[in-house]
Amino acid sequence: MTDEALTRACRAQVLACAELLLEPATVRRALPGRDAATLSHGLAGTALLHARLAAVDPAFEAAALRHWHAAIETARTIRGQNPGICGLPGGIAASLVVGTPYLADPGPLAEATGQAVTWLAARTRDHATACRAALRTPGALRWSHYDVLTGLTGTARVLLAAASTGHRHAEPALAAATGFLSDLLTTRHDGRPAWWIPHTGHLPGSTGIPASGATHTGLAHGIAGPLALLALTELTGRSSPAQRQALSAAAQWLLAWHDEDGTWPPMIDGDQLDGASASSQHGRRHAWCYGTPGIAHALRLAATALADPALRAAADHATATMGAQPPAAWDTDGVTFCHGHAGVLAALPDDHPGRDHAARTITRRFAGHHRFGWQHQDQNRIDDLPGLLTGSAGVALALADYAHLPHHPITSPWDSLLLLS
């Protein structure tokens, strides 16, 4: 397939997917319960796809409004309040902040967006205070304290986007979150980094967690996420000596655990931390969530923020070694964003040859008879899912950017929610 033919195929499939996801009822039927409203799986994520395409056809702008209103309506029936971007209503707040600037007329949702920022800022300040208390106790921190999808790294990126688009009341909460994350990256307990999590502290259902617990390296759940967030904050002029020290400490820690093949171990257990050597376990080492594209992207951001050519060289070496491997050997799973080729497409540098391979693989996997165009693959399970992280909306968003489908000028693109801009 020539480059021109590939671009045409990408554009056609993005629009076909958006048509399949045009009505909120389609998403609700696929995801009964709380997932129907979320950013990661449901309406808050499909709204982002339609908002991204608003400049292509006004019908998509109207669809985005319907999806957001349906998400808000659904969330009102759900008990509990979680500020993380994968929770409710945090994910809806994130989607509104980043998505509404894509619209020709964001006015109908301006009040809801302002209220979302106010709510998210208050919850983030509370969360940062609780996290500081946990930071003082070895092993007390959890993913939900700091990671991109459930913790302060993700909500801080939303607040940074909000502050950059005129919501100045987001600034104090953003400062509270980045202050905690700076302390996190420089705190050690008995030689182990503060983001080490004991065996009993990992998510229910997590497999392969050693008895000595583990730290994680990747962009989604590991230390590369806070590294990327603090670098992005530094690059907006919100700088501090503590933040710069944290950037340097986290980047050097990642370099110390870098394997010669251009990847990082997805987790480093407590015994390995104490012995300063890691095993060579697999675990999506080339995916956005845990792998080279996301970690190298974080290092590249840190290199720019710190004006450190050695960090940039390390990031470039990592992605170059990935490019030198046969793509069939990549440690990924399927085409969806979190574990598969859409995340690779979005995270690799624009001139990386792996992006073309990822786009070709994605277009080959599209089928009009699938419920949403693409299917999510997780090990041996296949599902038809609509959403951002594990569904067709995330695939279509990555392809839309790759194929340069037009959009209204924006400060924080949709992929900022995933720490890629």
Offer a concise description of the structure.
The protein has about 425 residues and is mainly α. It has helices at about 5-20, 25-30, 45-50, 60-75, 90-100, 110-135, 145, 150-165, 170-185, 225-235, 240-255, 270-275, 290-305, 310-325, 340-345, 355-365, 390-400, and strands at about 190, 190-195, 215, 265-270, 375-380, 380-385.
Features:
single chain, 421 residues, mainly alpha, two-stranded antiparallel ribbon, two-stranded antiparallel sheet, 17 helices, 6 strands, 52% helix, 4% strand, globular
Summarize the structure in words.
The protein is mostly helical and 421 residues long. The protein has 17 helices and six strands. The strands form three sheets. Strands 1-2 form a two-stranded antiparallel sheet. Strands 3-4 form a two-stranded antiparallel sheet. Strand 1 (188-189) and strand 2 form a beta hairpin. Helix 5 (90-99) packs parallel to helix 8 (152-164) and helix 6 (110-135) runs parallel beside helix 9 (171-186). The two termini are 29 Å apart. 55% of the residues are buried.
Supply the number of helical segments. 17
Radius of gyration: 20 Å
Largest beta sheet: strand ordering: 1-2
Which range best describes the helical content: under 10%, 10-25%, 25-40%, 40-55%, 55-70% or over 70%? 40-55%
Tally of strands: 6
- Please report the distance between the alpha carbons of the first and last residues: 29 Å
Q: What amount of the residues lies in strands? A: under 5%
Mean pLDDT: 95
Low-confidence stretches: none
- Secondary-structure element pattern, one letter each: HHHHHHHHHEEEHHEHHHHHEEH
- State the shape: globular
Largest sheet: 2 strands, antiparallel
What is the SS-derived class? Answer: mainly alpha
